[in-house]
TrEMBL record:
Its EC number is 1.14.14.1. The chain crosses the membrane at residues 6-24, 179-197. One of its GO terms (molecular function) is arachidonate epoxygenase activity. This is unspecific monooxygenase. InterPro entries: Cyt_P450, Cyt_P450_E_grp-I, Cyt_P450_sf, Cytochrome_P450_fam2. It comes from Gopherus agassizii (Agassiz's desert tortoise). Belongs to the cytochrome P450 family. Its cofactor is heme. It is found in: Endoplasmic reticulum membrane; Microsome membrane.
């Protein structure tokens, strides 16, 4: 063999070994994962999915592997739940195990694990508990809150009907200005005294 041929063969063997090890690592580490199609290194199952009709591809995979299966989008492992029964079992029957949320790299970098929207794990559970407790203290889930919201909506609709003779643009501007204060007014009604709707406060 000439030197260039030996180098080429050596590189081809090395690349083949790396690809094999990558595929083996994915399949050997998936003992606790649901079944799924064999993924190619680096690109995962991208070639097996019809991106023009992704729901059809997912349905076909669910017929072959069951309602819960694993696919790889590139190197990202994704467990797919397909069908109402699988979703109900995961999100209702086993809600604690599935209550975690995915990580967004950009959000982690910017917020550094803080905040309400992008938090995860134990911090998310504490923030959720705090938010639910606070909202319940304000009356969330009680009939009186629903009645108050409906009453405010009736006042808003009546005011919009009487505004500018039904001309759409001024009504939209009026609606925008009314909605800006609606949440604030609602919490003031819950915590303080009831304020008349047409009050300037």
């Amino acid at each position: 063999m000439e030197p260039l041929g030996a180098t080429t063969v050596f590189l081809a063997v090395c690349v083949s070994c790396l690809l094999f090890l990558s595929a083996w690592r994915k399949t050997s580490g998936s003992g606790k994962l649901p079944p799924g199609p064999v993924a190619f290194p680096i690109i995962g199952n991208t070639l097996q999915l019809n991106t023009r009709n992704l729901p059809q591809s997912i349905q076909e995979l669910s017929v072959k592997y069951g309602p819960v299966f694993t696919i790889y989008l590139g190197s990202l492992r994704v467990v797919v739940l397909y069908g109402q029964e699988a979703l109900k079992e995961a999100l209702i029957d086993q809600a604690d195990e599935f209550s975690g949320r995915g990580k967004l790299a950009l959000a982690d970098k910017v917020i550094k694990g803080g905040g309400i929207i992008f938090s995860n794990g134990e911090r998310w559970k504490q923030l959720r508990r705090f938010a639910l407790t606070t909202l319940r203290n304000f009356g969330m889930g009680k009939k009186s809150v629903e009645e108050r919201i409906q009453e405010e909506a009736r006042f808003l609709v009546a005011r919009l009907r009487n505004t500018h003779g039904g001309d759409l643009l001024p009504v939209c501007q009026e609606l925008r200005s009314q909605l800006k204060t609606l949440v604030f007014l609602f919490f003031m009604i819950l915590t303080l005294v009831q304020t008349p709707y047409n009050s300037s406060h």
